[in-house]
């Protein structure tokens, strides 16, 4: 466990803990407000993210940015990270050994950011953070409180590109997050 960002990021740049290290061009550490009240967790870098070293900069990310803009939230106000920091080949789902090796980094990021709300983007984030007993279809849109953090599972933004109904639900879930955030701020 690292208690500062520099050391944590340095340890990831040189990480060879799992086989995903062999295919990466860049690690995707995470990005945003390091003191954010809202943190978003995705799955892992895609081709664009691997190229730029930044999370959610491809098509799915642009869609997510639009949703935030529409709700009056600046992307820079939140913190965004992924379950794995290196791109899985062909955008496959991270395997359980890869996620397991990488999760310590994400946990460390959560400890440093201290978010009040965590948005879990899709099944990989949900299962790796809250447990395999959770399913995204039945869990999405419902708050789950654990160890003082409020979790909101929702669709992965990439799923929205294929299904218009999911777009509506995603929007609804994010709106719920923004409303909860405003409620917490007022306390
Ligand atoms: N999909 C993810 O899960 N994370 C990213 O950073 C980009 C796409
Ligand atoms: Fe290390 Fe995570 Fe990259 Fe695997 S995915 S090599 S654990 S940083």
Please tell me about this protein's structure:
- The protein has helices spanning 5-13, 47-52, 59-70, 96-113, 123-130, 136-139, 157-160, 164-186; strands spanning 31-32, 38-42, 79-82, 117-121, 144-146, 149-154.
- The protein has a single domain, classed as 3-Layer(aba) Sandwich (Uracil-DNA Glycosylase, subunit E).
- The termini are far apart.
- The model has no long low-confidence stretch (mean pLDDT 96).
- The protein has eight helices and six strands, in the order αββααβαβααββαα.
- Bound molecules: uracil (URA) and iron/sulfur cluster (SF4).
- Residues 12, 15-18, 20-21, 27, 84-86, 98, 101-102 line the site of iron/sulfur cluster.
In a few lines, what is going on in this structure?
The protein is built from 8 helices and 6 strands. By secondary structure, the protein is of the alpha/beta class.
């Amino acid at each position: 466990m690292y208690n500062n960002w520099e050391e944590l990021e340095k340890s990831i740049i040189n990480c060879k803990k799992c086989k995903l290290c062999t295919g990466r061009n860049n690690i995707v550490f995470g990005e945003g407000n390091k003191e954010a009240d809202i943190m978003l967790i995705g799955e892992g870098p895609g081709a664009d993210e691997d190229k730029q070293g930044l999370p959610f900069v491809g098509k799915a990310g642009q869609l997510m940015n639009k949703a935030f803009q529409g709700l009056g939230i600046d992307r820079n106000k939140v913190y965004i990270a992924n379950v794995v920091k290196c791109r899985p080949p062909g955008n496959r789902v991270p395997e359980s050994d890869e996620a397991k090796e990488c999760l310590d980094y994400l946990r460390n990021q959560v400890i440093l950011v201290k978010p009040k709300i965590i948005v879990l983007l899709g099944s990989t984030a949900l299962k790796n953070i809250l447990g395999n007993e959770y399913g995204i279809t039945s869990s999405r849109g419902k708050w789950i409180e654990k160890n003082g953090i409020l979790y909101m599972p929702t669709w992965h933004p990439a799923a929205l590109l294929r299904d218009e109904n999911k777009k509506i639900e995603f929007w609804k879930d994010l709106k719920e997050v923004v409303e909860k955030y405003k409620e917490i701020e007022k306390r």
